[in-house]
Amino acid sequence: MTPSRLSTFFAGRGAQLAAIRHDLHARPELSREETETANYILQHLRALGLDPVACVGGHGIVAAIAGRSPGRAVALRAEMDALPILEEGALAYKSRHPGKMHACGHDGHMAMLLGAASYLASAREFPGTVYILFQAAEERFSGARAMLEDGLLQRFPFDGIFGLHNWPGMKAGHVAVHNGPVMAGTNEFEITFRADGGHGAMPHLTGDPIVAGGYLLSAIQQIVSRSINPLEAAVITIGSFQAGAAPNIIPDKAVLTGTYRAFSPTLLAHLRKQLEAATQHAATISRTTASVTFDGPDFPAVVNSLAEAELVRDAVRELFGAERLTTLPPAMAGDDFGVFAAHKPAAYVWLGNGDESAGLHQPDYDFNDAILADGASLLAHIAETYLLNNGIQVEIQ
Ligand SMILES: [Zn+2]
Ligand SMILES: [Zn+2]
Questions:
Q1: Which fold has domain 3-183+301-388?
Q2: Is 126 helix (H, G, I), strand (E, B) or coil?
Q3: Do 49 and 59 meet the contact criterion of CB atoms below 8 Å apart?
Q4: Is the pLDDT of residue 42 over 50?
Q5: What is the pLDDT of residue 204?
Q6: How far apart are CA 120 and CA 178, in angstroms?
Q7: Mean per-residue pLDDT for 153-181?
Q8: Which of 27, 283, 339, 343 lies at a C-alpha separation of 20 to 30 Å from 144?
Q9: Domain 185-294 class?
């Protein structure tokens, strides 16, 4: 039976996976800067006898693990990047790069995927191919697209893709698998208002970028509350507003940045259009000029396909028992795993990081080492189950 082989393999391996996780935690690198992280992963994959391909879409890495006979292919994905956060606390493996931190648990995701790879590379009790996929720059939402633009689907043609994300507030080791939407579609924007600038005592002689920004802040509150069906989820948030340097000067520029989120492409397009319209109104009323730039096309929501979601639930039941399965509503946070899921059948799975865990992106967050072995064996079991269900059947002893 596969589950018992898996539990034998991973019994006692928690400490080894934790050591890998701590190594990665101590060396966090920001999106698009994951050089040291990539080298660390390459070294580990090579030690497993694999021949990983580096620099797939920036610092991304793909390693193929061929099974014992021909068949379909499945990809398992983990993210590599950290966040610009100053880590709190006094962990022995605390970040050695001040101002950078693995505050989203990607250190744990990488350790779990390396664990799954070590099992799959040694057992190979499946037909087809498993692609072990390390994706860079998730937090900046550019890594998944970069991999596709680098020919990911042609060079490593997989039929389905799976990813795990730890989830604070959920019991450690419990698993939530959504049917359909999991995480919102998203985009980021930067809005700049410009005018001549002038004396604070003579506002009639210049447009006022600060007034424009203030008006925009109020105006966008109406986009979600007054133009979208209240039963649909949508968010627009301004995260920064920078303008001015002195009390008696009207500055020549104000810059606002923010993000919008929704689940359907239609609603994302609506938010974008209304944001542009509100910006133009703000510019007109304050006698400024305005420009809006977006972070490319909208990023799709993460949407699980039904068969893949059910396969993961089956894998959880077999490995851990049905009591480990739980349900939660989707989140408005985003993940560029949605880019992969837009191209191939996929499931993005939440793995509980514990009731007491600090939230993702918080300075006191830490990935829970107690779930590493379970996460690694779940990833491995998902891949084996996927290939055994869909590929050429083989006899397993
Ligand atoms: Zn994150
Ligand atoms: Zn994350």
A1: Aminopeptidase (3.40.630)
A2: coil
A3: no
A4: yes
A5: 96
A6: 26
A7: 98
A8: 27
A9: alpha beta
Q: Distance between CA atoms of 46 and 76, rounded to whole angstroms?
A: 17
Active site residue 138: yes
Render pLDDT for 289-304 as a digit per residue (tens, 0 to 9).
999 999 999 999 999 9
- Cα 67 to averaged position of ligand 2 atoms, centre (Å): 30
Give the CB-side neighbour count of residue 38, counting CA atoms within 13 A.
Answer: 20
Pick the ligand that lies closest to the CA of residue 186: 1
Supply 158's token pair: 């997989």
Q: Using the structure block, give the residue that is written with the tokens 């690198």.
A: 29
Catalytic residue chosen out of the listed positions 81, 125, 139, 298: 81
For 47, residues 6+ apart whose C-beta sits below 8 A from its C-beta are: none
Q: Is 208 a catalytic residue?
A: no
Q: How much is the pTM?
A: 0.92
Q: Which of 390, 315, 322 is nearest to 349 (CA)?
A: 315
Q: Report the residue count for the chain.
A: 397
C-alpha of residue 195 to centroid of ligand 1, in Å: 36
- State in Å: Cα 185 to ligand 1 middle: 14
Find residue 168's DSSP bridge partners: 354
Question: Do 219 and 236 touch, CB atoms closer than 8 A?
Answer: no
Q: What share of the chain is helix, strand, coil (3-state, %, to 5)?
A: 40, 25, 35
- Domain range list for the chain: 3-183+301-388, 185-294
CA of 360 to the centre of ligand 2 (A): 8
State in Å: Cα 109 to ligand 1 middle: 12
Q: Chain centroid to CA 34: how far?
A: 15
Ligand nearest to the CA of 77: 2
pLDDT of residue 290: 98
Q: What is the mean pLDDT of residues 5-28?
A: 95
Q: Tell me the per-residue pLDDT of 85-144, one tens digit each, with 9 for 90 and over.
A: 999 999 999 999 999 999 999 999 999 999 999 999 998 989 999 999 999 999 998 999
Given the DSSP bridges, would you call strands 175-176 and 325-326 parallel, antiparallel or unpaired? Answer: parallel
